[in-house]
Specification:
Shape: globular
CATH class of the largest domain: Alpha Beta
Number of helices: 17
Order of helices and strands: EHEHEHHHEHEHHHEHEEHEHEHEHEEHHH
Largest sheet: 7 strands, parallel
CATH topology of the largest domain: Rossmann fold
Strand content: 15-25%
CATH architecture of the largest domain: 3-Layer(aba) Sandwich
Distance between the termini: 7 Å
Oligomer: single chain
Number of domains: 2
CATH superfamily of the largest domain: Glycogen Phosphorylase B
Length: 402
C-alpha cells in the first residue's frame, strides 16, 4: 500500500510555537509520507529546528488583486453553486458581528483552493478555524480530500467552536489530540459515526529530551519555570498571584517566564508583579529556541502552568520527559497527560491559593516530587512518543486514504 501525499495548510507556518506540527511532519516523512506545506500568512519567527521547512513552505498572502480576481472568476464560472454554498456556510457559521470577518477568511480560502486545484495531495489543516476553512473550500470547489486536526482552543473558544459543525460535516475525517476534544467534537455533531473523529495524540521526540534524575534541591531560591506565550488564556496573572502567596509564607523563589509577548501583556504582568511585591523574583525571557528551553528545564526545580484552557501542552510534555516535576491546571484534556497526585499535581486555575499549595507541596517533599517525575516520564514514553505516534498515524492514513 503506497504512502499518502499530504498537503498541510496552516494559518501561519513556520513560527516559534508550532514545534509539535513540524515534528509531526518530520516523523510522517520518515514513515514514508510525502508532505507539502501552505501557509495562509507569512511565516512568524522561525526557530532553528524549523528552518529546513521555511524554504519548502508556499506562502499565500499577501494576495495580489489580480490573483484574487482570477480565483473567484474561475469558480464563479465553473462551480457557481459550490461557491454560493460556501457563502451560505460562512454566514451561517458567523457568530455575532463575525460575518465580514468570516467572508474575509472565505476570500482567502477560495484563493487557496485555486492555488492547489491541480495537486493530487490530501489536504490536512492543523487547527480548525482559518486553515480548516481553506481546506473546506478546496473540498467543495475542487473535490479534494480534506481533514483537520482540532487542538485545544478549537473546541473551547466561542468564535472557533461556532464554526466547527460545518467543517466536521464537510471533512473526510477529523483528528482530536485528546479524548476530551474527541468527545467534544462528537457531541457537536452526534449524527457523525464515532470513527469520523480519530484520537491521535501528539507528542515529543524523546531522544531530544532524555530523562535526568534530579539531585537534592540546590541551596537558595526555588527555581520555577513556565513555558507559555503571554496570551490571556495562559493565566500568568493567576500564576503571579500564587507566587505572591508563596512569598507570604516565606518561600524564596525565582520564576522564569519563557514565551513571546502578546499585545503588550508583558508590561501588564510586570505591573502586576510589582503590585504584588514579587517583581524582583520574576524574569521575562521572551521567545527562545528549543535548545534554550531545554536549558531552562534542566536548571529548574519545578515546571508550572496555570492556563484557563489547554489542549495537551507540549511544554509540559517536555518537562515531564526530562524529569522535572510539574504543576498544571485541571482543565479540558490536561488530566489525560498528568494524573493528579501520581505523575504531577493539578489545581484549579481560578484559585491562586490552590496553585500555591501544590507548588509548596512539591518543593517541601522532594522525594514525592522525584517519584512523580519518574512516573511522568513513563507516561510520556507510553503515550506521547512523537515518532511512534506519527508512524501509527501514517499507517492509519494509508488505510483511510487508500
Amino acid at each position: 500500500m503506497s504512502a499518502p501525499r499530504l498537503l498541510y495548510v496552516l494559518d501561519r507556518f513556520p513560527t516559534d510555537t508550532l514545534n509539535f506540527v513540524y515534528n509531526e511532519m518530520r516523523a510522517l516523512e520518515a514513515a514514508g509520507c510525502g508532505v507539502e506545506i501552505v501557509s495562509l500568512l507569512p511565516p512568524g519567527p522561525c526557530p532553528a529546528e524549523a528552518r529546513d521547512y521555511l524554504a519548502r513552505t508556499q506562502v499565500l498572502r499577501p494576495i495580489p488583486p489580480g490573483r484574487l480576481l482570477r480565483a473567484w472568476l474561475h469558480y464563479a464560472l465553473r462551480r457557481p453553486r459550490a461557491l454560493a454554498g460556501l457563502f451560505g456556510t460562512v454566514l451561517e457559521d458567523a457568530g455575532p458581528g463575525k460575518a465580514l470577518h468570516n467572508l474575509a477568511h472565505l476570500a482567502v480560502g477560495v484563493v487557496f483552493a485555486y492555488s492547489v486545484r491541480e495537486r493530487p495531495a490530501h489536504i490536512h489543516a492543523h487547527f480548525a478555524y482559518k486553515a480548516a476553512l481553506a481546506g473546506l473550500c478546496a473540498k467543495r470547489l475542487n473535490g479534494s480530500g480534506f481533514s483537520f486536526t482540532a487542538h485545544g482552543s478549537d473546541t473551547v473558544m466561542p468564535e472557533k467552536r461556532h464554526s466547527l459543525k460545518s467543517k466536521l460535516r464537510g471533512a473526510d475525517f477529523a483528528i482530536a489530540i485528546s479524548e476530551y476534544n474527541r468527545r467534544t467534537l462528537l457531541a457537536l455533531c452526534p449524527e457523525l459515526p464515532a470513527g469520523q473523529v480519530r484520537l491521535q495524540r501528539t507528542g515529543i521526540r524523546l531522544a531530544e529530551f532524555p530523562f535526568q534524575p534530579r539531585p537534592a534541591r540546590r541551596e537558595g531560591p526555588a527555581r520555577l519555570v513556565c513555558v507559555a506565550s503571554l496570551y490571556p488564556v495562559k493565566n500568568h496573572e493567576g500564576l503571579l498571584g500564587a507566587c505572591a502567596l508563596l512569598a507570604a509564607r516565606g518561600q524564596a523563589f525565582r520564576l522564569d517566564l519563557v514565551g513571546k509577548d502578546e499585545g503588550g501583556r508583558r508590561a501588564q504582568l510586570e505591573a502586576q508583579a510589582r503590585r504584588l511585591g514579587v517583581l524582583e523574583a520574576v524574569r521575562f525571557h521572551g521567545s527562545v529556541d528549543h535548545g534554550e528551553v531545554a536549558r531552562f528545564l534542566a536548571e529548574a526545580d519545578l515546571f508550572v502552568l496555570a492556563s484557563h484552557s489547554e489542549g495537551i501542552p507540549v511544554s509540559m510534555m517536555e518537562a515531564m520527559a526530562v524529569g522535572l516535576p510539574v504543576v498544571g491546571p485541571r482543565v479540558t484534556g490536561l488530566p489525560e497527560l498528568v494524573e493528579d497526585g501520581v505523575s504531577g499535581l493539578l489545581a484549579d486555575p481560578a484559585r491562586p491559593d490552590a496553585f500555591a499549595a501544590a507548588i509548596a507541596r512539591l518543593l517541601d517533599d522532594p522525594a514525592a516530587a522525584a517519584a512523580m517525575a519518574r512516573r511522568a516520564r513513563a507516561r510520556i514514553e507510553a503515550d506521547y512518543d512523537m515518532d511512534r505516534n506519527a508512524q501509527a498515524l501514517a499507517q492509519w492514513l494509508r488505510e483511510r486514504l487508500a
